[in-house]
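Recap slide: Phosphomannomutase, sequence and predicted structure.
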Amino acid sequence: MSFKREEILCLFDIDGTLTKPRLRILPSTEEFILNKLMPKVTVGLVGGSDLKKIAEQMDDPNLVSKFDYVFAENGLVAYKHGQLIGKMSIQQHVGEEILQKFINYALGYMSKLTLPVKRGTFIEFRDGLVNVCPVGRSCSQAERDQFAEYDKEHKIREQFVEDLRNQFPDLGLVFSIGGQISFDVFPKGWDKTYALNYVEKDGFKEIHFFGDKTAPGGNDHEIFEDPRTIGHRVTSPEDTIQQLTTLFQL
């Protein structure tokens, strides 16, 4: 494959794609992306989490300067070559009255759930989205894994999302399940395809996206299916590296 670095962009989901869920990136994965892939292609990260959490997972507080693009909160907070190039606010877009109505209902729903454990921070407010977590984001890694297995069997998040869709059919909100323990809520069009608004005008001949939650309802689905990208479904960081090695002959 013959191409220039500035002609090819690779965008990566983080959780389950470059790292194990909510764990830090392995040094071997980081070394591969930075030292083998980045000299060949342009590289961007597209995460649903806020920038602080992405920096923790990528094990680098200065990651916005390390990668060509970093898109936090699905691209609602956008960096290019270390510079902030865009920031959107769900509070301004939706309005406080609607936000509180939604948050109050979600908290009421969760108060009726009985789970293996419950901890703290069930609603996390971010710039571009609201994160809803039935088990509570302050749970330990063991409790996170426990809920993930429980959720696979009992479909806690799927049923919760279905109920919210029925309760709020006219608010223009999207409910996207990602990671192990939570789901994101944001205005229609504010999924990970939002990041493409920044990169599609930069003249790339190909935009590749790598993600693990690519099925309908997953938070990688829209960008994976978008006609502007070439989507790659991965199952783990190891699978990501293997696909990249094959694709770009690394």
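The domain at 90-187 is CATH 3.30.1240.20 (Hypothetical Protein, Haloacid Dehalogenase-like Hydrolase; Chain: A; domain 2).
The chain has ten helices and eleven strands.
(End of recap.)
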